[in-house]
Fold:
Amino acid sequence: MENKILRVNVTDMSYKLEDIPEKYKLLGGRGLTSTIVTDEVDPKSDPLGPENKIVIAPGILTGTSAPSSGRMSVGGKSPLTGGIKEANAGGLTGTRLARLGLRAVIIEGKPQHNDWYHLYISKNKVEFIKANEYFDMGLYELIEKLGDKYPNAGLCGAGIAGQRLSKNAGIFGNNIENTDPGRYAGRGGLGAVLGSKRIIAVISDDTGGERPKPKNEELFDKGRKKMISALQEHAVTGGKAGTDKGALKNYGTNVLMNIINEAGALPTKNFRSGYFEGAKNISGEAVHALVDETNEKFGDKAEGKYGHPCHPGCIIQCSNVVPDKETGKAIVSPLEYETAWALGTNCTIDNLEHVAKLNRICNDLGLDTIEAGNTLAMAMDSGKIPWGDGEVAIKFLKKCYDSNDKDGKVFMQGTKFAADTWGVDRVPVVKNQALPAYDPRPIRGIGVTYATTAMGADHTAGYTIAPEILGSAGGDDPRGPKKADLSRAFQSTTAYVDQSGYCLFIAFAILDIAEGMEGLEETVAGFLGKDSYDITEVGTKIIKIEKEFNKKAGFTKEDDRLPQFFRDEKLLPHDVTFDVSDEELDAVYQNI
Amino acid sequence: MSEIEIHLYGRLRKLADNSGPTDDSTIKIAWKEGETLADLVEKRLNLSFDEIGEIFINFNPIMQHQMIIPKGARIALFEAGMYLLCGGQHMKGHGFITSKSKDNEVNYF
Structure:
């Protein structure tokens, strides 16, 4: 197989391998998922009905020897937002599919039966494997069982939440060691779409597969070396775990907990303050110290880690394994900043063990942690459970295991649904998707992106990469009223990186170090066999078709707004509201 | 006598007595009228800016080392490599990450 699309129809349990159409040849990852969804899914269709599809696509470079390029995208129409969705993850599946020569897997149709299946994909066969015994099984047990049967396979799929068609169901993914299902394409409820197809796990076995070959190996290799050098040189992405160099390798993404707190932009207690006194207790520094402590205490038996890769070939290695202080055994992997914020700070829980356990339960159930943390905050705001009590929060979250528990059922439908049910009127969502870990009042640029991206509130939709790359984007004065231009530029560039298969954290190396940007351009151009590849043009095309899908689905500019309380309530310590005008928000997608 | 409060993170915590990662690693020193951030860091704390990553004064990210320290300031110093990432970068845009030569002080990007 090479350059193929695997189309799986669950209505008649058939599949076919298709040659990749000419118009898709230069696409990968998000570019491919969003284009296929736009081409094949009726925007007005029921997200859980037969017309919706799940598209899984490795990035352009995924599976190659380019560093930190093993990401994959999952796309479809979101049951949470009602719009187009792309969720991105590391793990093993992207690399495995790429080495099987698959550019995308499309799962379509609606089963006429009540059985559950795994979809097994290997070099020589594609098979539906009956999997009723895996229904309602926690994902830690599930990946262990599948790992025994299919060693080294990539696993992704729908957990308990997805099987129950819950709107906060992520697509889980196994980690390299197959010890944790925590490599989530988490946002937007795509796990429920897969659940509606009655697929539990997609098992990708690349035995006998081959590394994808660049069309221009010389150019690709030249770029690859430049990218490695830039990533290693940069203070954020380089260094070595356990030394004084390398923030991401030592503290992971959760390095941000203390930093965003000192920026006065750490949303605390359902976005009531920008500063959390307990942040230090659940920070990346706290995890780092706990790993060191348990490694010293338990030696070879200790399982805690930092400087841990999220996919094969990652040299940034921002993942971690949080150990139990008393046993040294792993609680969860990874504990990301967004998760520690959602399940910790936003609920005023500052106990690291409790936050890690909440994360593990979400991973086990198949829930997106950002949405889950915001939903927990709704439970606290409604008075159902107290603020800041981790043990009570754990007990409450465990209600989700019981399919008859009313609170559990409501919880798994996401923040907006829970708020409406429980009577909460401060609801931090855009397009029904809960906000991530940066308050939009002091950080207005991210607020513009939350409001306007087709994805619903999403911190990864407009990564701050762009003005220097995209000459027209920023203007000279970053305080000037050009947030619309900037946000659009950020969203375009992010869409491009998402389609390349590279991790978004290459942003530092490609912007700050000249050979990093050359490395990006040369690896992509070398792989595709093109002389050059216009980043702006490609990224803009992606966000444009995503926005057009949403328009056809019925979204209007009124959906591109933050909740009113961000305009009404000042946030301390900055004492500011979100004061970007509606006109400026509307300008983001004008004339593209 | 007026003081300034310096909150330390990462390896810079060693400058404070309470220097564990879950402690408030803070030192309080006298405020000097007209003192710049550069003078404070290099002369009074005996640090090089190469050892420092993100800097905040009163919760605002600071890129200009010649900024005058305001009376009663709360200053946060992070170790080299600890920077605003992801959405946090919107507070100052990119390109300031390794280069501190830009004059922009605070913005809400």
